[in-house]
## 1
Amino acid sequence: MNPDHPATLASLPPDPVSAAAEIHMSLMHWIDLEGVAHGDAAAIEHIALQFMLHGHQPYEGRRREDVNALEHALQCAHLAELAGAPDALVAAALLHDIGHFDIDLGDEVDDRHEERAAAWLQPVFGAAVAEPVRLHVNAKRCLVSIDAHYAECLSPASVHSLALQGGAMSHDEVRDFQALPHADDALQLRRWDEAAKMSGRLTPPLAHYLGVLASLLRQDAPRLTVA
Ligand SMILES: [Fe+2]
């Protein structure tokens, strides 16, 4: 397995046990997992596998953007890093769309991917990672209401999903959203999300960001807690 190009299963042994062992050995080679609890290391392996299985898929399903799902995730995380965001927010940027990976309801239904992703992330990484992910869809609805320039720059696929997700927020909805813990992180994440769709943009490889996830999970690191 090459975490830089986890696009296919072709390089893995056909039986699941051997494939899982190869993924594990590859991660041990590329990422320093020392100090990460066994269950947490398994969570990182699960994330790597999800990107390997689904990263080649076009971002935003059949309403294609210029990047695939892995490229979009890496660009979003890279933009967070370049902005000096804390590791938890970089992780949220990387993982904000993993809820798309395990379900395909087509392009005409809101798949609630943010809720599924956040529910999985919360017990592993805590609120600092999970909540910006949970809120990133409503952050778009908020930004469309308060920032005309942001609304004009939405991609066609984002405009389409915005309608499915409830459209622009009302004044009262904006006020309530902005009062939520982690709303500021979610708004920032949403701006990186929209900018992370540039074909050919260079980023660090997935292994780099799996290392960021590992650093958040070391046993001696302060656990990210619910705000
Ligand atoms: Fe996204």
## 2
Amino acid sequence: MINYADLSLELITEFQLSQETKKQIATLLQVAFPEEDFHGRHYFKQLPHSRLLLKDHNQLIGQLGLDFRVMTLNKQPMNVLGVIDFAIMPKLHNQGLGTFLMQSLIDQMSVFSHNIDFLFLVTQKPDFYEKFGFRLTNQYVKWLVTEEHINYGMKEEHIEDCLMYKPLGDKEWVENSVLEMMGYWY
Ligand SMILES: CC(C)(COP(=O)(O)OP(=O)(O)OC[C@H]1O[C@@H](n2cnc3c(N)ncnc32)[C@H](O)[C@@H]1OP(=O)(O)O)[C@@H](O)C(=O)NCCC(=O)NCCS
């Protein structure tokens, strides 16, 4: 049973992370995404700008990374906060912790709707995110391909089954358009 009184949430900038926290993030990512090889890193492709950490006492039990960038949708720039590497310790799955972490992020970020137009994420499990108000989008997407710290140039493809957005401000999301990710695919 999870005792929510023992949990704490910390929003932290990437360059403030301690060695110990980076070690705990690296362990969490590797066990939560066993199909990927993180080579001991605490990030997958690139450092996020900040993170929301979920701890039980001093032990990291969940985390998500935040990538804040301008993307261009239908030729219009918009401020997009990407949620990446969202993970809960596997032995604690299906007890509501993922829901708690995602809802906490939305609550905390809603205050910044004057700066953040949309939350955004890539997923193979859209059902989980729909209950938080994320919607799948159908776009012609352009992004930078990166792998293991090497750039492989631009890729363009029609994507309809894994990109999700949630409006925070009052900007309108345009469907069936062109989405320039303005950087790497996370
Ligand atoms: C995705 C992930 C973060 C969800 O974490 P979680 O703590 O298991 O999430 P929750 O417990 O809140 O919700 C999971 C399911 O349990 C159910 N659930 C929620 N609260 C519950 C509770 N108190 N008791 C039982 N079940 C509960 C939810 O309905 C949900 O079901 P759904 O999948 O049909 O939506 C976790 O599975 C994970 O780390 N996966 C590996 C990494 C990954 O795939 N990350 C996502 C990349 S897009």
## 3
Amino acid sequence: MAGILAIGMFLSQGIEDIGARANLIGVDFGSSFMKATLVRPGKKFAIVENTAAKRKTEAMVTLGKENRLFGADSLLASGKYPLTTFAELQRTFGEQFDAELVQKMKEHRFITNEIAADERGVVAWKVTSAGSGGEESGEELLHSEEVVAMLLQYVKMLAEKQAEASVRECVITVPSWFTYDQRLMIRDAAEQLAGLSVLQLVHENTAAAVLFGIDKVDKEAQNHTVLFYNMGGMDTEVAIVRYSHLNVSEKSKKLTPYIEILAEAHERDLGSKDLDLVLFDILADKFNALKEREGKPDLRTNPRATKRLLKEAAKIKEELSANKQASVKVPELLDYVTLQLTLERAEMEEKASELFARVTRPIEAALAKAGLSMDEIHQVELLGGGIRTPKVTELLEKALKVKELGVHLNGDEAMCFGSAFIGSNSTMNFKVAAVMLT
Ligand SMILES: Nc1ncnc2c1ncn2[C@@H]1O[C@H](COP(=O)(O)OP(=O)(O)OP(=O)(O)O)[C@@H](O)[C@H]1O
Ligand SMILES: [Mg+2]
């Protein structure tokens, strides 16, 4: 990352407003969830709650018969409207339609919608209208930006409701592997379509690292090196970050935190949702093997049953994080046949061995880029929902040989709070102490 960026430090009492009274949001645009933090002059940072009073919203949208559904409502409706429910938005955002990753996602049923290439060759979502009320039925292509803008608009609306005022500016997290074009496209989605002005795009781990530097690192620490490991829904990203403190003022002895991102690495197709797919396959195979299904087509050929079983797989995965076995029950999954069984965590772990074999790969890549060995890392901080899978932490513990795997930040919310923090300085609307970031 070029140059030094002065970013702000907010004090726990709140932020002093010295400029225009503009509110802003830090948005963590994840592949599974969208989370946002609201910054208002003179008030503490606050998470943006959705209409169901939840602190995170599933990053998906359903075009229902009469309205747009978001979050849990969209997830609930995905079985009924599989072809107009759009998920996997971040992983497909700005990707070329014929890219191997996209084709693999289709093949692996991450995408059950009809997708096509738009005029740029980028993934677009096909929507077929039924043609009710006399108008022609037809097919429409929704661009990647249009669908993501719907989500951003929703988040803006929630933030404005909470702020009881307009919210115009934002900082958005992006994966470290986003290309220049993908960055331009997300800016367009926010600025041209969702009515938000983008102050900055930041990497997820950078946002978390800034937050960490504010109050989790000793105020006089020099060369304190922290490895951030973030397993989200669709990827795993690692950043190695060094914290020092510099005296940049001739007048005062006050030290300013100095944060260097030494290296970043990622494993693009290693995320918690990949585990959902492993579980989905186990369950689909068991369903297909039922006596009642003899001679019947594979469940995977039915979009509605596929969506329902994917949803169950995600639920079962979380249960298997807490317990060694889980009860599966999907009533009348297909043709009035119910799926009911008990699944062992060990069976999932065995079937997911290819995924687990890659858990430590981005760590090795980041260490190599930074020219460091694990002995030179003082702390490891875990982020993202994927680290709740016991096998993941077990593998990390074995490989990292550090005293503790830290969870000092709220691994779900550090990214949106960090980006809100970065944004609070970029506008000059808030009086904030400096942190230097390179
Ligand atoms: N208890 C749990 N056990 C296993 N997985 C879990 C658990 N809780 C949440 N997850 C998984 O974590 C994932 C979401 O994590 P997170 O919120 O970090 O993703 P994201 O930020 O949206 O994705 P990304 O960073 O990849 O874009 C989901 O796939 C979810 O199923
Ligand atoms: Mg994430």
## 4
Amino acid sequence: MCRKGAWPEPLIPAVWRGFIYLAGASAEPSWILETYQTIKMTPTPTFDLTNCMLCPRNCGANRAAGHVGYCRVPAQLIAARAGLLQYEEPCLIGSKGSGAVFFSGCNMGCIFCQNHEISGTDPGAALPPGKEITTQELSQAFLRLQEQGAANINLVTPTHYLHQILPALETARRDGLSIPVVYNTSAYEKASMLRLLDGLIDVYLPDLKYYSEALAVEYSRAPHYFETASAAIAEMVRQCPEPVLDADGQMKRGVIVRHLALPGQAEDSRRILRYLYEVYGDQIYISILNQYTPMPAVKKHPLLSRTLTEEEYDQLVDYALALGVENGFIQEGGTASESFIPVFDGSGL
Ligand code: SF4
């Protein structure tokens, strides 16, 4: 079993010492993609935005009338940036980067959010900042990213825009979008809503943030997070049951579950890793993140005001290796920095 740091240098970018493979999956991908999933062309379901129940918050907000629920956005589609992003797992960035579209607002609202500028968690902000666009313009942004050489379309925090993302994806597929689509989510999702994406999403990239109910409530005000997120991940794995990588080691289909290790929460992290490996084994990839960065809102928090120590992270990686995890990613040092957060200036939209 290989340890962190045992991988050949080319896997570690010279400037950004980011993700590396936990085991040797990059060397010899076991699957070669031959066809994409069948393109879904069914009528888009209608959503009642006068009584929004899109996500487990079940706010019942009348978004159609301009009101907002927990996610802080009305019915309009608001996004903050579309561009090529290098800071993702190596199987998602290809040669030019992942085509990331950052959506404004969020249904999680973690107190330590790195994207607090656009998530809507900043106190006093009326609406999260971003550019209002139509579903047609979103669809065109997808196609522009493909023209720029994006390895995939990476939908970042998409949950509360499902009603617009579905038609935008179907239009883009019809107009020539052929790269994989990645659904990058907190996993605080309804499995029933995810079923609507069956056949449209190629790679699911959910977080699994907390095992503990107390942590989920304290840090994200998200009751029943673990049972909700684990049911959502089960639906994602049902849709994408095996990892599929091309000859260059790029993921064309599959599920990568991310876990951001938080300072002082080693036991919770171990429970997450144990759960994922016992339930899914090597059906999924597990990505263990060390990039936790204290944001201004938690500078005085007794636990969240510091970064993860190298020792804490190494012990967690050792635990994953001892479990037998082979399909995984770990991060090399130097990733806890605000400088890795993109500029949210509406570019690319
Ligand atoms: S999508 Fe937003 S408004 Fe709708 S239930 Fe979720 S948090 Fe509430």
